[in-house]
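Page header: ASSEMBLY MODEL / two components / 536 residues total.
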Amino acid sequence: MSRTLEYPKTARNTVVRRGHRGKYDLETIHTLINTSLVLNVSFAPSPDTDEDFPVILPMIGVMGSFENPSAGLDEPLDCYLHGYVSNRLNNLVRKAHDAGKPGLPLCLSATKVDGLLLALSGFNHSYNYRSACLFGYANIVTDPEEIVYGMRIITDKVVRNRWDNTRLPPTKADIASTGVLRVTIKTGSGKIKADPPSDDKADMENEEMRQSVWAGYIPVTENLGEPVPAVYNRVDAVPEYVAQHRSDVNDESKQYSEELVQKVLQAQ
Amino acid sequence: MSRTLEYPKTARNTVVRRGHRGKYDLETIHTLINTSLVLNVSFAPSPDTDEDFPVILPMIGVMGSFENPSAGLDEPLDCYLHGYVSNRLNNLVRKAHDAGKPGLPLCLSATKVDGLLLALSGFNHSYNYRSACLFGYANIVTDPEEIVYGMRIITDKVVRNRWDNTRLPPTKADIASTGVLRVTIKTGSGKIKADPPSDDKADMENEEMRQSVWAGYIPVTENLGEPVPAVYNRVDAVPEYVAQHRSDVNDESKQYSEELVQKVLQAQ
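Prediction written out in full:
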């Protein structure tokens, strides 16, 4: 019998409010990270400066294991990050490494808004959403093979099967100019809200007000539009794997959205 | 003659790489914050604990001025945040306040992905995007009138003109149970990429490879779906302001997306 792996619940990651919305299983959290186009990556200001503010950078990230590339999303994985690694971020990572630390402490988060919940009271308005948060230690990937591994899974995250359909193999210059961070995950959590609108008892009993205030739900979806060729493209038609990726992503998004609409329509 | 207000450029917020993409004018940045359904709010771990990791919370936020409610988006504004204010966040804000600090240092960020740039080389893949980042000091709003002001502009951010069409006036219980943070902005920056795909010279000259690798662009849009009534809704039709908000948001999104597609198709 298989066991569902979960991130350990600690004071750090336990979803205190509305605890039933908290998700800790690796597959749910890793899937949210992998299907979000952008991750928000936060690091604290350097303790040896007088800077006040943490920083958030948008980056592309995907879960993977260089040691065990066939590992499933329900298994322990690292997060590979790509994007502009600023001098400051680079220096902080190096400094953490040189100080013998396990890496630079990062928080990674991904959030999808699935719909707007319009209650009778403005104070009960809310969103349906799916969010995931991971805490881990970042290091710069230096092994050329691991850089290529990271770029492969990041590229295939953007469009499934894209890597094998790009110009290959990578050159030494490609690899030398590419910054990839590997984040060793320490813990994480997810939170999913997938509810109909709801109101307080007093508002539900206010029949007169309810005749004039509309209560309902507006679905929100992210859609991939029709692919267009670059002016320098020489390939006649949009390749099948690109069209397939687009329709798969849009179908998944539409299906989840329709499930939520059914929940709203069928709530008692 | 009017002057365009900009956030001051400091080491903290200056966009070093691809500096031409950096945006500092208040209107651009405030518009990005206001039109993003969700903000990522980051705070550093408390310095008096041995915690390593910063935290990112998704929250709803909007720019406004309680003192000068008619101020435009091109004027200095505060950011009002709503969402679950965790005990930890609450305690950190109070602690900062009690220590005589101007508030808890936060980073707020908003990112929209506008399209996927598929270059010939996997290493030149990229996104078109719009992102904004604000740095400021958060305090808990305690004045009941300012709480109501914050909730009004947050609700109207979710759906334009919604507040006046909800159950009003707010009750004492509504106000007492609602956490609103006001963030006094110190500085900020934005970054916009709106480019066609591009590749290195060596790849552009590789005619054989170019016969087989598709290069192009996939637009990404966020769409509001058809509104559905809550089961307890008593109002016959979807109100005009809801339908109007939906079509305005979708039209703006479609128009910007089409501009980018034209840029891709017309690049030389």
